Amino acid sequence: MGNPFFRFKQFEIWHDRCAMKVGTDGVLLGAWTDVSHSQNVLDIGTGSGLIALMIAQRCRAKVTGVEIDAEAAKQACENVALSPWKGRVSIRQADITAFEGGKYDTILSNPPYFREQVYCSDSQRNAARHTGALSFEDLLDAVIRLLTDDGCFSVILPFEVSGHFIDLAAGRYLYPMCRTDVQTRPGISPKRVLLTLSRNILPCKEDTLVIESEPRIYSPDFIQLVKDFYLAF
């Protein structure tokens, strides 16, 4: 078993009872999403509470994390209680498809995304990683229901499914306004896509983030993005 907790500059995340551990995807989304004007934030599938606490560190908004798995939700509550922002962050154990929590001007999700037919033996991990537990359609329907008219939805996805996701979102009148393709190193095809969508049709701002300028050497852009969180920077 790996380390049961991950220490950031201003908080710790215990994740030994969560299916999905602290990883680069969640950190990227929590650091990249624009929350400069956010007042009421929703993190769908909060898991250990990582993204919810990152957002609380970056702004003064009220943050709600929703998690369907009871044990993960309990651990997220414990992580929040140990953080400096326990007064502004709340965790709800609920199925997002039935969740009623008002409207949010900022919604984030690091959603389940594996579509393989071969599942691992750990049912909790399967639920966190596979679209069988929360389809893109169900996720987007929840976002449409919970997002304010002028709100924004941010998500991180594998590059190969991003086009399909954008098409599904457009069918629900959500359109990309910011897109960052994430490459592990220069010259390598993108592995992930960071997207922010809104109800407005606007020119989409597009760029690329390279994580490593060379093997095991982080790029200046990546360091700049995550330096407020990782102890190494």
TrEMBL record:
All copies of the Methyltransferase small domain together span 35-117
**What Gene3D superfamilies is this protein classified in?**
Vaccinia Virus protein VP39
Localization in the cell = Cytoplasm
Domain of life assignment: Bacteria
Q: Which PANTHER family match?
A: TRNA1(VAL) (ADENINE(37)-N6)-METHYLTRANSFERASE (PTHR47739:SF1)
Function description:
Specifically methylates the adenine in position 37 of tRNA(1)(Val) (anticodon cmo5UAC).
User: What protein does this entry describe?
Assistant: tRNA1(Val) (adenine(37)-N6)-methyltransferase
